[in-house]
């Protein structure tokens, strides 16, 4: 089936089998391997990307469902000049990653929420809810929580 | 701008894990697995699978050479010839299925979708046999996994048997039984292997902790010299001990890549790993702990029935780690621990973060709290009376370890102070007088662990190379799976050589880069590989001075080294390393370093509130004080301590594998059934450290990163037992689900 995905502002005309999940198409057809598959049943959230600005588990969505829609992955988080997203800097500053496998998913969950509401970092409960949505086995989450606060509120240190 | 060298690529989608590697023409392998835990396999038929579009081939054991089996792991005594004798682990099931998920066939396709299409067409039957999933059930041999052989695959002991008179004469003897439940390490990246033939060589990419070990195992499997195989561990998405072995799937993938002459990969998915990834822990324990009326420990006996899974090849000897560490941090004069490793219908047990030490600590520390209750001595005071004092080191334990150094009391004091122990005791007393308040308990856990490895595996290889452009390449046999080696080791080498960090690059996890290597496990990288790198730096400096001496016609003693440059000691222009290489040719040193074992220690403390009506546990505070000697990178070590404390919390409260009567785990919903902690479960945790350098390693570093799995579980369980004032600590079987706690509270 012919579809068109706009991924990180780049148009990808694709021929995909209807059964292929979005994560596989991003990784294999678009060669964007920053989106990781941690469980393939929608629990861990490592594969989270933004579809039309909303965070989705790309292991649970078919690529054909995204025909004509806009997808943002971790490769598209940098700014137009190539500068890192504040969340990317904050994750590093707070040691919010160790092995890095779950990291793109947490970044995209947070980036989507922050884009929808730039004040989210000021609400501890909402930040906590964001962190609760994904699984990390290395960090124990607290550094991720701090990083989201730090990346959401320029100048703040949680 | 980036805290760790790894961060930029991992935060921008530039990481390269095995599944991210693009290899033209690569085939995907998918395994067909038994849904039955124990049974007799008959009639595997792959013919329909072979007709599926995009399927390149399908194989059952009958299509393979009969000798294609999984080798056992002799490293660190994990397994032994006597344990595996007569017990072959075929790469694909031949006649007998021994654990649920064991592979009966493999299908290779042009991509994973096609390989899975083919796998769905493989027909086979397994005639079920009774399954045994606990060591106690398996040990009587009423159901045998291997016909004619006992399920008891290995036995061992540490220490000397304790005479009955010791128990008879003791003022108090605590007796209890504990279950260390099976756990799943659950790195976020499951297992991966990609085998790429080229010329007369094979390159194997795998998220792996010990690439040189894997290279040797694969060479033996293929009957090739090791130099025809290159193993590379690229970015690896966590391991926690579980990625240092060779597995049936790896044997199959490598065999097929060579057979087909094409790249083949296996990217394990989570549902597969639920059944077939190695498990950790798995011990049924009985303890006796004797003390006099003042609480001085007299004797401790630990009897272990260990669940080592269906095949003894990976971890039959692992429970000996628990036996040898049974003494713990106390000066108990008599300690005796025995191990019986029993086969069960479960995937093999293998090291998982802590690897034998959590089992030792949890048994002893739960018993210490029970003893304190019996004697009506404050549990902190009871520990103080028995902890080895700082002047006792080196200390040879009754179970054969030689502890290097420690100030166990200082760690306990810092934990109590950080927790506000007295304040929480007051709050506990207040609640005990208030019928409307939920009961609250305080739990302590003092631990000592072992790092670096076992004799025969306490060494590592390292090399340092100076290049004409002034850069330095450091190489070592470690392999990072999230520990930030590029950051820590590059900084270490820069400091040793006195050069700017940006000039140093670390290369590891590639067997073509260094002739030999051991790997990253047993908390060994900083302690052993770090020391090996330091020694290599010293050799490089010696060689640089010798070369400069030759160049300048000076005695070596008159060549100084400072800031990455040689200079005549009596004055004259300095020559930077890069210039020296230009003048004298390539400069590369390699060396092998051997360490002693390290014995990190610490004290963890938890406060928990229990709702006896609902059986729920709310951890209000957790304090972890760890001492791993000299710390090379405090932020990285602290991060690992925190993360491992959360894994310890998982063992105490959430993680476990329930089995149906047919021996199949009830994990059909994956990570919705196997409950690794999420952010919603994290209590306020404070991580602190003390520093007692190890005299056995030149850096003074002991191992880091496993402390929370070792120290935290008993602190939490003890807090719950304290809240409920339980006389028999054994009724709290981990994980402390609401069901377990509710029953214990009755």
From TrEMBL, chain A:
Domain 2Fe-2S ferredoxin-type: 1-77
SUPFAM superfamilies documented for this protein: 2Fe-2S ferredoxin-like, CO dehydrogenase ISP C-domain like
Molecular function GO terms recorded: 2 iron, 2 sulfur cluster binding; metal ion binding; oxidoreductase activity
Keywords, sorted A to Z: 2Fe-2S, Iron, Iron-sulfur, Metal-binding, Oxidoreductase
Source domain of life: Bacteria
Stored InterPro entries: 2Fe-2S-bd, 2Fe-2S-bd_dom_sf, 2Fe-2S_ferredoxin-like_sf, 2Fe-2S_ferredoxin-type, 2Fe2S_fd_BS, Beta-grasp_dom_sf, Diverse_Oxidoreductases
Record pathway: Alkaloid degradation; nicotine degradation
The keyword Cell membrane belongs to this UniProt entry's keyword annotation: no
Pfam families, per database record: Fer2 (PF00111), Fer2_2 (PF01799)
Name of the protein described by the UniProt record: (2Fe-2S)-binding protein
Source species: Acrocarpospora macrocephala
TrEMBL record, chain B:
Keyword entries, A-Z: Molybdenum, Oxidoreductase
Domain Aldehyde oxidase/xanthine dehydrogenase a/b hammerhead: 12-130
Family annotation (SUPFAM superfamilies): CO dehydrogenase molybdoprotein N-domain-like, Molybdenum cofactor-binding domain
GO MF terms held by the record: iron ion binding; oxidoreductase activity
InterPro entries reported in the protein's UniProt record: Ald_Oxase/Xan_DH_a/b, Ald_Oxase/Xan_DH_a/b_sf, Ald_Oxase/xanthine_DH-like, AldOxase/xan_DH_MoCoBD1, AldOxase/xan_DH_MoCoBD2, AldOxase/xan_DH_Mopterin-bd_sf
Superkingdom of source: Bacteria
PANTHER family linked to this entry: ALDEHYDE OXIDASE 1-RELATED, XANTHINE DEHYDROGENASE
This protein's name: Carbon-monoxide dehydrogenase large subunit
Gene: cutL_1
